[in-house]
Amino acid sequence: MLIRYLPSGIPMVSVSELHQRAEILRGKTVFLGVTALSAAHDRLVNPYGQNVPGVAVHAHAFETMARGRFLTPARDVTVLALCALFAAGAGLTFMLLSGWLGYACGVIMLGVAHAVPILFFRNGVLFPFFAPVSVAWLATAGAASFQYFFVRRQLRRSESEKSRYQQAIHWAAHEMRTPLTAIQGSSEIMSRYAMSEEKRHQLSEMINSESKRLARMIQTFLDVERLTDGQMELKRESFTASEIIDVCLKRVQPIAERKKISVSLGAPVDGTLTGDRELMEYAFYNLLTNSVKYSPSGTEIRITAELHDGDVRMAVRDQGIGMDAKELKNIFKKFYRTKRAEASGEVGTGIGLSIVEQIVKHHGGRMEVISEPGKGSCFTMVFKAHASASSNAETANRRG
Ligand code: ADP
Fold first, then answer.
1. Where are the domains of the chain?
2. What is the third-level CATH fold of 74-232?
3. CATH topology of domain 237-389
4. Which end of the chain is more exposed for a tag (fewer CB within 10 A), N or C?
5. What is the pTM of this model?
6. Which atom of ligand 1 is least distant from the CA of 321?
7. Band of the pLDDT at 105, cuts 50, 70, 90?
8. Cα–Cα distance for residue pair 142/400, rounded to 1 Å
């Protein structure tokens, strides 16, 4: 039997005081006992922290039975439900609240977990202490540390994205200044000084080409945002993979020659694609210029186009700086550049590939990349033959 001790204790009367205090014993059950008032070991500490002599323990046991107020153990299902409640409470607290408010609520919940067994005990129910308290501590500590590390990771990611974005904006501002200065200077010279027709023609050509360069640069920046938001309208034209490759090859040849890089082309294929030709050219040209940028002099770039299982595969393989597996996971993220690319001294924004991926996705295709540090990379655009800018493009059109 679990004795339910009376918090007020059992009234005790010493034999020496029996004459004076006999009145309080009238009508009561009296337990007689001999106990050593000073001796250790013959006393019991009850749940209220009181030292109870043996005779009083019997009196408490009698009271429990006489009043019929027995202590009953809590039901397993109640214990389980409360433990689950504490675990869920801890999770929700740190999911919904952050910072000091979350921690304060966590501490309050721990206090409640400690108080629950006491409250149950006061109401005659023996509730285990260890289970709810340990669940509350573990769940609170787990949820708090998850939130702490999760929030920190998010913060770090957004900070690095912000700084990459700022870098790109600085770079763009810097790059735009060059054509702007050329345009400004040339137009000023033309308006202030008399000059030969030939010189005037030269300067107007320069103004024209520099303003086109400026417009292209701005367009690139805008394209990233519009493609990401699905606001870009895709045209629906039919063209072959070879047409795209030929145009891009011609454009990249002079840049590759300057770096003494040879660009070779595999056997032509007839894979027909449907979509936005200009964007496809932009994407493939981007892969080619990247290969030139990130390859040392004297290396080779190989372009291949294959028709394989109903897919058109357009690949650019280089013998450049390459990337490791960790870097490969990030290269399609906006503004991401590998350390190797930055160390190479090649200027870049890290947005080209994110646009390429968007374009390929909007055409229902996918990108495949194989790379090895120091050995080279192979970027492949894979489309269904007759791949259309259908589903994605239509969505984009509707939104646009
Ligand atoms: P960037 O303007 O920096 O070239 P991109 O978005 O085109 O931006 O490319 C993102 C990053 O991917 C590059 O900074 C570089 O680190 C890596 N990368 C892209 N192409 C290659 C390649 N052919 N070889 C090695 N690294 C590449």
1. 15-70, 74-232, 237-389
2. Helix Hairpins (1.10.287)
3. Heat Shock Protein 90 (3.30.565)
4. N
5. 0.53
6. 25
7. very high
8. 45
